[in-house]
């Protein structure tokens, strides 16, 4: 009887110890996975930071060139492919806000063109009024936030926000820095006229977009707005920034992404940054 009790007690202790070991292994494995994920996220953040610094360096390099220099880069949002070591690649877009539709000053006709192209919602007078009132309220730093608050669906707001701003100078765009897709869209709608063009590049406020992809499968995206102050030692001021991190398949499309972007824009090596 006593030996049976001892056996049951021993088995119970073994089950308890086994449970503790399994729990400890699970905890350790989870900590390792979390640690690896944290390192991957940190690396993705650093890749974005590097891309943004490259963007600022490109802007500074442009400023040293005369307006007629052939090496001068028009900041019209064309993709720039950057290799950041062996692990990361990045697509960088630099957009002078003078080439974007300013939601505060845009004509109803031009704003309607954007709405009809990128959203199924009707471009009603009340919607146009809401967008303009929110854009002029001073409460928003990004066009996308203005559009979302005005009732535009998130996917549509993202598309329209790519071609609009609340940091321009008037209703006219600077043709030299207007994205080619936007110029084509305006032309197809009969809005490619002197009334909508005629401004000069701001050379002072820039929208920077970066998309980084890692060989290990970590993607990161950043959209930010910087103002450039000539009088303050050539300093940049970040007005706002949004970042997103996500997981993707390891190594997927890293080289393809760079090759695709190279056909559309510049490479960092062409700008003597590598």
Characterize the structure shown.
This protein has 274 residues and is an alpha/beta fold. Among the domains are: 37-61 and 72-96 and 245-257; 98-188. The chain has helices spanning 2-63, 108-118, 125-136, 143-149, 154-161, 180-188, 254-264, and strands at residues 80-84, 88-96, 101-102, 164-165, 205-214, 218-229, 235-247, 266-267. The strands form 2 sheets. A 6-stranded mixed beta sheet has the order 7-6-5-2-1-8, with helices on both faces. Strands 3-4 form a two-stranded parallel sheet. Helix 4 runs antiparallel to helix 5 (154-161).
Distance between the termini: 80 Å
Poorly predicted runs: 270-274
Structural class: alpha/beta
Number of beta-strand segments? 8
Helical amount: 40-55%
The pLDDT mean sits at 78
Structure annotation, total helices: 7
| Lateral strand order in the biggest sheet | 7-6-5-2-1-8
Question: What are the secondary-structure elements, in order, as H or E?
Answer: HEEEHHHHEHEEEHE
What value does the Rg take, in angstroms?
A: 26 Å
Largest sheet: 6 strands, mixed
Overall, the morphology is globular
* Residue share in β-strands: 15-25%
What is this entry, summarized?
This protein is an alpha/beta fold. The protein has helices spanning 2-63, 108-118, 125-136, 143-149, 154-161, 180-188, 254-264, and strands at 80-84, 88-96, 101-102, 164-165, 205-214, 218-229, 235-247, 266-267.
What's the structural blueprint in terms of helices and strands?
Elements: H1 2-63, E1 80-84, E2 88-96, E3 101-102, H2 108-118, H3 125-136, H4 143-149, H5 154-161, E4 164-165, H6 180-188, E5 205-214, E6 218-229, E7 235-247, H7 254-264, E8 266-267
Parallel strand pairs: 1-8, 3-4
Antiparallel strand pairs: 1-2, 2-5, 5-6, 6-7
Helix pairs in contact: 4-5
